[in-house]
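Quick one, probably user error.
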């Protein structure tokens, strides 16, 4: 069996595959040449992240392909249903990067609440001349402890965000289309585990009322999860973080509500026009921005590689 990890795979994942007698090709093939490469090299497994697209034309043109794998959760760059119809196995890693994404959410909340993003911009420019003025301008900061955290979405990432909110002493509420109850377990360094039973709600009015920090953790959607009606329900001075997908939050409306004072600050890791975010976002001092780094940690990539390898090895036994 041959694997083309076209967007890369961790060393741990590569070693696990090789140990199972599976060949791993370390080529990086441009999208226009992927089909030819797969056919010329008799590739059985195509692994991608977000760069390589697996559409119907590729699936049709590569009859020997047996498995398509996505290193991550969302599979909007793969025509999943069509691939399954054609008899391919389609795999992903829904849990491997959840912790990394959730930690980025909380990092952005800390950055916004303490003005770290803006302080880091201005200190190199004005720190030696306007130190006291900067100190004064950043003194309206907040603690996260005791505040209310609202999480939109209750998948693996949403659950990790809830865990971190609880561990910081935040009040937690969750919004989903249909109410769900999950047991959230917090494990500590000394072996203790504490369980919390959290029930989500589909009542948007109750969700947005008195919520101080909002994290969006949904899959890709066809319409905005947050737009004007949702902003109108929020409390003044709310903080928002989107690490889900570009297009779940109306960025133009967000900027308008930042300018009106309704939104105190927001963080974006994903963008509607990615990979070329709008200049109005890049220049806004009330935005904390990162270039789609949610699952980009060494830890997450190691877990993603191993999780993909384990699934491929199991499928190989069936073939």
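Nope, works fine. Designed sequence:
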């Amino acid at each position: 069996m041959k694997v083309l990890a076209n967007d890369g795979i961790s060393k741990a994942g590569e070693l696990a595959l090789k140990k199972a007698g599976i060949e791993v090709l370390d080529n990086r093939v441009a999208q226009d040449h992927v089909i030819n490469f797969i056919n010329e090299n008799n590739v059985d497994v195509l692994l991608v992240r977000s760069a390589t697209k697996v559409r119907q034309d590729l699936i049709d043109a590569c009859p020997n392909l047996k498995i398509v794998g996505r290193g991550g959760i969302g599979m909007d760059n793969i025509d999943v249903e069509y691939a399954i119809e054609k008899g391919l196995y389609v795999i992903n890693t829904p849990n491997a990067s959840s912790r990394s994404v959730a930690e980025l959410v909380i990092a952005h909340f800390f950055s916004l609440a303490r003005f770290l993003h803006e302080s880091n911009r201005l200190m190199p420019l004005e720190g030696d001349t306007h130190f006291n003025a900067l100190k004064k301008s950043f003194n309206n900061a907040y603690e996260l402890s005791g505040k209310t955290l609202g999480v939109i979405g209750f998948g693996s990432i949403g659950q990790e965000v809830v865990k971190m909110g609880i561990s910081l002493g935040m009040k937690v509420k969750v919004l989903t289309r249909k109410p769900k109850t999950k047991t959230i377990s917090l494990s500590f360094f000394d072996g203790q585990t504490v369980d919390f039973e959290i029930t989500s709600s589909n009542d948007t009015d109750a969700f947005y009322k008195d919520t101080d920090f909002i994290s969006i953790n949904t899959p890709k959607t066809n319409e905005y999860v947050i737009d004007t009606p949702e902003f109108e329900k929020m409390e003044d001075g709310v903080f928002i973080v989107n690490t889900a997908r570009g297009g779940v939050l109306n960025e133009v409306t967000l900027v308008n509500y930042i300018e009106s004072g309704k939104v105190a600050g927001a963080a974006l890791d994903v963008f509607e026009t990615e990979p070329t975010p709008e200049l109005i976002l890049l220049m806004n001092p009330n935005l904390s921005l990162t270039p789609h780094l949610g699952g980009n940690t060494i830890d997450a990539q190691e877990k993603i590689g191993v999780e993909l390898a384990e699934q491929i090895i199991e499928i190989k036994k069936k073939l």
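The chain has a mean pLDDT of 96.
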